[in-house]
């Protein structure tokens, strides 16, 4: 049962194309800003025409908010955030990731226990995702809280 819906608006600063070879080469966007609004299901219109109007209104609000983001640097309903002095540490992350992959691959080859544990984990993950689904498991876990 769905209790609410989330409306997410995403704005990008810097390089905005994704899914091409430049992403693989490390040319990523400089900043990603996400504005999230929560709406209880009970607050939404049930009539199809009213729901259509509500959705159109949401769309117009999102467009205004995105225009504000690209013009002023923040979404309509959000004040500007403090500046985060970020660094371009892609090379460091790339190096750490590759070292972890090489060390992990070596550990799987060198240790029968780790190889067995990895195979066991793969089988359990495959069974759970095929027959039950991790998303259902997470939803049920949060519903029980």
Automatic annotation (TrEMBL):
Any GO BP annotation: phosphatidylinositol acyl-chain remodeling
UniProt organism field: Henneguya salminicola (Myxosporean)
The protein's name in its UniProt record: Lysocardiolipin acyltransferase 1 (Trinotate prediction)
Transmembrane regions listed in the UniProt entry: 90-109, 115-134
GO MF annotation, one: acyltransferase activity
UniProt KW Nucleus keyword: no
Pfam families: Acyltransf_C
Record carries keyword Transmembrane helix: yes
InterPro entries from the UniProt entry: Acyltransf_C
UniProt keyword annotations, A-Z: Acyltransferase, Membrane, Transferase, Transmembrane, Transmembrane helix
Family: Belongs to the 1-acyl-sn-glycerol-3-phosphate acyltransferase family.
Domain Acyltransferase C-terminal residue range list: 31-79
Gene Ontology cellular component annotations, sorted alphabetically: endoplasmic reticulum
């Amino acid at each position: 049962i769905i209790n609410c819906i989330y409306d997410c608006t995403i704005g990008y600063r810097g390089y905005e194309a994704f899914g091409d070879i430049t992403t693989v080469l490390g040319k990523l966007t400089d900043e990603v800003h996400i504005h999230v609004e929560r709406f209880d299901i009970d607050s939404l219109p049930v009539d199809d025409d009213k729901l259509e109007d509500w959705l159109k209104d949401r769309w117009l609000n999102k467009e205004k908010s995105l225009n504000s983001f690209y013009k002023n640097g923040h979404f309509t309903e959000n004040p500007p955030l403090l500046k985060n002095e970020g660094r371009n540490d892609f090379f460091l992350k790339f190096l750490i990731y590759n070292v972890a992959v090489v060390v992990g691959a070596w550990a799987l080859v060198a240790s029968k226990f780790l190889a067995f544990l990895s195979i066991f984990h793969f089988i359990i993950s495959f069974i759970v995702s095929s027959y039950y689904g991790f998303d259902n498991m997470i939803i049920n876990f949060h519903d029980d809280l």
